[in-house]
Design brief:
307 residues; alpha+beta; 3 domains; 12 strands; elongated
């Protein structure tokens, strides 16, 4: 097995231990200090003294994923939807991303401003993401097992990590910023995409009419964002005007990081549309936020009696 000890403020030590001997007969019971001391001492090969625990908890390497994140009016998130080996804090991160994905969709649905099937897309987007996390934690658990037959594989991964180029793939996987979501068309289906659509938008600095800004700051209000870059984006604001009650439209100076005319950014930071994709802006807006309301023109009339 292995032991990780870390000093924390207040003169205490945070201790974690993993015993690879097999399933423990007391795994469904609350952890005691004596059991922890016994296991740690056995792994270390010498007696380890312990006293005055602040908290004790037990974790496992099993994985579970629900069949669906939604059943009628019940929606699941975080550990209620997925559990796995707690390596790298990915369970916490995955649960937070569940909440961010669900929050704005639920808010629009409650307010009657959501496109058909928008709330169902929570399961369609987040369940595959959780499966990916479960898969990579299982791979990490396999590499951690104290089996000499795995030494060549561990050595290979060590070389890949030391090379630098491949490490960005793993870091993006653990941070979940490599997640690519399906795009939504006017009929709610998925379709062809631009290189931007479905990806997470980095926090780019922007120069707007109201001064310097960045993507995160512009999304803080929780509304979807239509970014228009310079004079190349003429006409898109007119197409989006029927959704002005939902959408925030911001004009910004063109930037080298975002070489495109416009971007529709979801409240969770993912790009929903760009002009070089296969869909029209109005179709995507309707898919997310419902059909454009009818424009009712009012006039005046009078009936005059003769006299």
């Amino acid at each position: 097995g292995w032991i990780v000890a870390k000093r924390v403020p207040g003169g205490r030590t945070r201790l974690r231990a993993l015993d690879w001997a097999g399933p423990q007969d007391r795994r469904h019971q609350e952890l005691t200090l004596e059991e922890l001391r016994s296991r740690v001492s056995w792994i270390a090969g010498q007696e380890i003294a312990m006293e005055t625990p602040r908290w004790l908890s037990r974790f496992s390497d099993y994985s579970r994923l629900v069949d669906s994140y939604r059943s009628g009016r019940v929606l699941l998130a975080g550990d209620a939807a997925h559990v796995h080996f707690p390596i790298g804090g990915q369970g916490l991160s995955t649960g937070l991303l569940d909440a961010v994905n669900l929050g704005w969709k639920l808010a629009l649905t409650v307010r009657g401003l959501a496109g058909e099937g928008l709330l169902d897309s929570y399961d369609q987007e987040r369940r595959p993401a959780a499966q990916r996390v479960i898969d990579n934690t299982r791979a990490q658990v396999a590499l951690m097992r104290p089996d000499p037959a795995l030494d060549p594989l561990r050595a290979l991964f060590g070389e890949l990590l030391s090379g630098g180029g491949e490490s960005s793939v793993l870091s993006s996987m653990i941070s979940a910023q490599d997640t690519v979501l399906p795009t939504r068309q006017g009929d709610g289906t998925t379709g062809s995409r631009s290189p931007w659509e479905g990806g997470f938008l980095p926090n780019v600095a922007l120069a707007t009419a109201d001064g310097p800004a960045d993507v995160i700051g512009l999304l803080c209000g929780g509304r979807p964002l239509l970014l228009l870059f310079g004079g190349r984006a003429e006409g898109y604001d007119e197409q989006a005007r029927h959704w002005s009650g939902v959408l925030r439209v911001v004009r910004a100076e063109p930037t080298a990081e975002l070489p495109c005319e416009a971007l529709l950014v979801r409240p969770d930071g993912y790009v929903a549309w760009s002009p070089c994709g296969g869909a029209e802006l109005t179709d995507v807006l309707a898919a997310y936020f419902g059909a454009a309301p009818s424009v009712v023109r009012t006039g005046q009339s009078a009936e005059l009696s003769g006299g």
